[in-house]
Amino acid sequence: xxxxxxxxxxxxxxxxxxxxxxxxxxxxxxxxxxxxxxxxxxxxxxxxxxxxxxxxxxxxxxxxxxxxxxxxxxxxxxxxxxxxxxxxxxxxxxxxxxxxxxxxxxxxxxxxxxxxxxxxxxxxxxxxxxxxxxxxxxxxxxxxxxxxxxxxxxxxxxxxxxxxxxxxxxxxxxxxxxxxxxxxxxxxxxxxxxxxxxxxxxxxxxxxxxxxxxxxxxxxx
Length: 221
What we know:
The chain is an alpha/beta fold and 221 residues long. It is built from 6 helices and 16 strands.
């Protein structure tokens, strides 16, 4: 596909893109600030997600319909096919859902619950709920952070077990280790982020990152 000027395709990861838009860059800087309060953090996650969704949904197909304006009947495009599904990885992914819905208000919302075992650092499932009629639906899996990539890989694995193939992963901040892990497990998966950071620290947190997104969203730090 032709890459828009607002997207940067990483040279080492064929299907990984960062959104290089001034509003995204500006809002992400405020999001990272440790002094940004909980309400502002929530608002910024929604706003940045909305801006990402504009780029992420470029592949959606349209059909031509007749529309009667106040002046005449015309041919006009509208989205075609089945309603997309937003799949947040609980819990932090919930903070991105409203950003998706602001542009796709009729989208369905599934849920997948994964937590990281703090000893093994491996993802553990605890909840999974998606629509039953998934044939030809596109799925947007979202999580603010792509750190080790373990949870993202397991979420995509679970969807593919259900026969779902049209899947896109969307995050705010990614670490190279997480991108590499996800690309290795699912080499054809499109991945979109607002930023690619330096890497992971000894506790597998993204550096410089923005802290624990779930804690900052829900006030549990």
